[in-house]
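Service request form, structural biology core

Requester: graduate student, group of Dr. S.
Request type: structure prediction, single chain
Budget code: on file
Notes: please return the result as structure tokens.

Sequence provided:
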Amino acid sequence: MMSKFVLQPAGAADIPVLLHLIHAAFEEMRGRLDPPSGAHAETAGSLQTLFDRGERAVLATVEGAAVGCVFFVRTGVETYVHRLAVLPAYRAGGVGRALMTCVEEQAAQQGCAYARVGVRLALTSNLTFFERLGYRVIAQDNHAGYRAPTFAHMVKELGPQMMRVVEVVPYDAQWPARFEHEAAAVRAALGDAVVAIEHVGSTSVPGLAAKPVIDMMPLLRDIRDANQRISAMAAIGYIPRGEFGLPGRSYFVKGSAHARLVHCHAYAFDHPEVERHLAFRDYLRTHPAARRVYAALKIELAHKHPTDIVAYMDGKDRLIKQLEAEALRWRRAKEQ
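Core staff response, request fulfilled:
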């Protein structure tokens, strides 16, 4: 039976111990990964750089001897966790879980919305470990110079997941300004990956009653670019959700479940879904009768299902599909 372990903050004075732990814990991965793990290349200088730029670390000890560590850094609503290292002899004893829990608790106390880790796809046991801790894969990504995915971004949202209230309100003339404000911040975060950012959804249609949540659609040169800018989006308050059921989308949300502010649906500029969103928006903008029917149904469903967003969405599905079909026919007829 393993003796009780103790967790404590670690700093620059602990660099020799942290470096030894990282090298020893990752040694078994030597030759197993392509590209090789960056842990093998860590030095006292590289760890000092981590601390210099504001990263923090936690150290686990057993009877005074170091057995594990982890590094983490906060960016906006994100805490990014890496270099989780546990000596082989002390694995399966709860050290790794305890280190992660310690980081998550600190992140939640600081107001972070989620924690993120990068896990090599080749290390299936590591993927399983994080899944058991409540992390889920939101995207696969590749190291520079590699075409195929080599690792997964895994996210765990922190804090209580409160009930989402369905509220449909009259059109607010301030919604376009809210969109412009958020779009400017998102454009800066996504940088040169952006081709355009469109205001979509009900708040983009003047006169239409809607949930007071801005829907925006950044159009990117390559949807994979969104994976490189997760922390930049976190810095302005956005939580990554991956495709979230819609292939080809990179979905981010801003605000808590009970006070959602923005839904951000990023697509490649040439993705087929882009036309559907724009056609639906423009059709409702120019067809008052369709707009009135859609608004009436939304108000009815919000009253009927005030705390059941799934029932609300399901109730709209048939009419939305009908209106989308009409909108696409209308859009394509205009283009001919």
